[in-house]
Amino acid sequence: MDFNKVIKTRASLRNYSPKKINYEKVLSIIESANSAPSPGNLSILKYIIIDNPETIQKIAQACQQKFITKSQYIVAVCSDSKQTKIMFDERAEKYIKQHAGAVIENFLLKITDLGLASCWVGAFSDITIKKILKIPDEIEVQAILPIAHKSKIKTKQKAKTNLNNIIYFDTWKNKTKTKPRMISGH
Ligand SMILES: Cc1cc2nc3c(=O)[nH]c(=O)nc-3n(C[C@H](O)[C@H](O)[C@H](O)COP(=O)(O)O)c2cc1C
Question: How far apart are CA 42 and CA 118, in angstroms?
Answer without folding.
Answer: 26
